[in-house]
Amino acid sequence: xxxxxDYVLRTVQERGIRFIRLWFTDVQGxxxxxxxxxxxxxxxxxxxxxFDGSSIDGYARIQEADMLAVPDPATFQxxxxxxxEQVARMFCDITSPGGAPFLGDPRTVxxxxxxxxxxxxxxxxxxxxxxxxxxxxxxxxxxxxxxxxYFDLTPLDSAQEYRRKTINALEKMGIPIEHSHHEVAPxxxxxxxxxxxxxxxxxxxxSFRLTVKEVxxxxxxxxxFMPKPxxxxxxxxxxxxxxxxxxxxxxxxxxxxVGLSKTGEQFVAGLLTHAREITAVTNQxxxxxxxxxxGFDAPIWVSWGYNNQSALVRVPTVKxxxxxxxxxxYRSPDAATNPYLALSVLLAAGLRGIxxxxxxxxxxxxxxxxxxxxERKEAGIERLPETLSEALDLLESSDLVHxxxxxxxxxxxxxxxxxxxxxxQHHVSRFELDTYLPIL
Amino acid sequence: xxxxxxPAESSEPVAVALAIAGLTPKLVDSIASPDTGEAGxxxxxxxxxxxxxxxxLRQIGDLTNxxxxxxxxxxxxxxxxLIEQASGVTDFIANPPDAAEIGVRIRRMMKQHAADEVLVYxxxxxxxxxYQATLGASPLDLxxxxxxxxxxxxxxxxxxxxxxxxxxKVWGYDYYGGARTVDVHVRRLRAKVGEERAxxxxxxxxxxxxxx
Lengths: 440, 212
Known about the structure:
Number of helices of chain A: 13
Strand order of the largest sheet of chain B: 2-1-3-4-5
Order of helices and strands of chain B: EHEHEHEHEHEEEEHEHHEE
Number of helices of chain B: 8
Oligomer: heterodimer
Helix content of chain B: 40-55%
């Protein structure tokens, strides 16, 4: 038993914690939890907790159902809500009964990709900007809080209050917040999380989404990370700011301290080259593609630029003498992505650019959306896939994604998402009824 | 740093050994119900079991329960089996004691006791025995590394530490993530202690961090 585990055992005893939730994530990015009591904790550390893997989406078939959840003591955290009963959580790694890492576990997938970065001498740092909506309830007809009928019921600043409480809870959980604000769309909010290493960040994003939802629930409202809930307004994105460090040196920072280095350019070239094939992972739902449309904030063209808000990859302006802040922002992922898998494919794409020395094309300085299709064609600017189906076709033929996700996740993801698309194709929508029924 | 000795009229070999070891113990008349404030001042209590071992071992159990003071028992070899059953005895030595041995034992216990003492900075308390931190009256929820970093800062305040120094002293090895790990943890600690106390840890530009 190491000192970290000892620390957890002591804390559980001293603080009178009744339940410890062991957290892990399924392939689609849903948080799963096994609750254990303090008496079982020591066993969980030394042997892992057995659970039925066949009940988790994308994990095991019935005949290989038994799996172990092994808690990572470094992630031990008492949950800041539900004060009346002390509950703590730890993230788990999933293994087979024999102790081999389970390749269907998204956290294991990310660890495997991070190990590759480590082999190349890099540490991968990430900071996300996460958007979400508050609605009155989870019913199929979204009711925004801060305009129209609901204006009377909840004063405008009440949403600010929910956001403030959310941020307090996040900071108590060791998830520092850089900044937050009300977004352009009604009832939409954005919280920017301070950077940390990619594995911790993926864990943090899982905690983040739950915390936002828990705080909303406490106030009798509903929070959603659905990519595009309101047709007439921007959807909810999860932009990733990314950088690679070699010890203390930001390898993305160019010699002038503000621009990109050669390595940084190669990473961006990797992202752009593979952008279309990784999109099914970063934007994994039918609804994700309703956000990636013309006329809104989300990027739809594969391009990059310094501080260009319409580009897929933006290189933000940093203050002079802050080379550690040089980073690239990837803007297409949505708020309902699986952070472990999204960061896996983004890292894999960027690293391939470095490994194979990809050349970065010229930046697009203006607004890509205002270019004519001929201009875009001449500049070699491609469009991100327009539907989940197109994205899956691109994913299926991608060696890069196959390698990054591994056989198990790659195969399951394709089957599951093809099925989702198929179910959607069967659906006759409001649009069709309104448009066609009166005239055909 | 007070070494207490009970009974006040201990046997000559014990008194002599302590004197040779360079210790001048405070003589205690009773350990049955000492003022806990008084017992709290003792770094180590030496008890000679002499002719009433059962009674004294029982009193030691009660006393350590109440105060946590470390106890060194001086016992005849025939009394050793009793010590095995007793609670609250930190260490023991055969009677008559060797002066060099009793000196080393007591000083080791003092050092250990000091390491276990609660660390205080303003309204923050860290208890190294239980790993718990409190801020005012409320518990502060820290991860292990946040706890270790805060403990290091409190024990070594008012001087500037570079990120590399903090990494090697707190993490103790070449931690994955390098010196940026320190920045991440400092930011997390500031977030957890709250805005009004975030200034406890100051960033010293292009050098590192200072606490207090």
